[in-house]
Amino acid sequence: MTAEIQAAPHADLLTGFRAGQRTALARAISIVENGRAGFERVLHDLHADMGRAHRVGITGPPGAGKSTLTSKLALHLRTLDERIGIVAVDPSSPFTGGALLGDRIRMTNISTDPGIFIRSMATRGHLGGLATTTKEVADLLDAYGYDRVVLETVGVGQSELEIAGTADTSVVVLVPESGDSIQAMKAGLMEVADIFVINKADRPGADRLAQEIEVMLHMRLGDMPTNAGHHGVSLKSVQKAAREGVKAAAEQHGEWAIPVLKTVAQSGEGLEELARTLDQHRVYLHESGELSRRRQARLAERVRAVVERRLRRLAWQRGPGEHILESHLAALEGGEVSPYAVADLIVNQLGLGPAGGPT
Ligand SMILES: Nc1nc2c(ncn2[C@@H]2O[C@H](COP(=O)(O)OP(=O)(O)OP(=O)(O)O)[C@@H](O)[C@H]2O)c(=O)[nH]1
Ligand SMILES: [Mg+2]
Fold first, then answer.
1. Would you tell me which of 36, 121, 163, 257 could form a disulfide with 247, CB atoms 3.0–4.6 Å apart?
2. Between 247 and 271, the higher pLDDT residue
3. Dist. CA 171–CA 197, nearest whole Å
4. Any idea what the CATH number is for the domain that residue 57 is in?
5. Which of 266, 269, 273, 274 to mutate to test the pocket of ligand 1 (most atoms within 8 A of CB)?
6. Atom 32, ligand 1: residue with shortest CA distance
């Protein structure tokens, strides 16, 4: 074993964690979140306890109602006696964050229930990368025994999309505001969605957005409804044809027909259907073998991310990388050395043997 997973065994912490003590869970999370000594060992030791939770990613544009939806979903799942862990990635800085406070207030009514655990993550200050840390916190919630682990991220950046894309089931939340469906296409949200939710269905335009999404899903299958674009044909009839087409095509290939649901998160409308659809997707994942494909992809990605994180730490935190860089800044600017030569010097210090270098 390397130094990373040998360090600090945290025996008491693990005992408390496995006994279901929330304080131990909170401590484990803060050790992992802050990358404190021995954090990889904690994850290593708990790895065998992971893999039971259904991981649900909830993403979408800022203010779409993701937190409201998540808390209402959690409340509904509680009535079914499920235990839910929630990780919310807060896009604003932890120091000025209005959104963080907002999330806390909106989620207070559920935060005293022992069957629910909520953690808000700050997006800054993750040397190992936000996406990896967030997923590791989700791992802890899984290992702790939550039946459902929900990851809420704002679908604006690459790492947020990455987080959503590595859940077992990804829910993309959109709202009836102009350009939303086009935004979704642009941001790559279409590619990660297993379920679309049109939230704020109490507002005008929800039906139209649902129709647009269904037509887009159908177009992605490469097969427009034959009457599309025909003069006098309503979007609604195209939607109906599209929905049927998506279902038929999915059934034919044993695939998942991506549903487009409507919700009013504030009042809880549509949440039961969302919960049912999540269960259906979980069954589909099991039966189709897609679950193990997704989990293998997730584990492979994790190994790569951990290797990269260790190399980064080795170069910039433990090793003399920063020092070598600083001491060459003037020479770099003066054109006496190239960035590649300085990189060579740093890499050579890592004790990894020949590492390519400039050719
Ligand atoms: N009209 C209406 N408002 C809603 C609905 N769901 C949520 N809202 C409101 O929309 C606002 C944003 O809700 P949040 O749940 O914080 O949205 P979010 O997507 O988590 O926001 P960020 O995490 O900041 O991106 C709040 O004022 C909610 O009360 C809904 O179904 N209808
Ligand atoms: Mg939120």
1. 257
2. 271
3. 7
4. 3.40.50.300
5. 266
6. 200
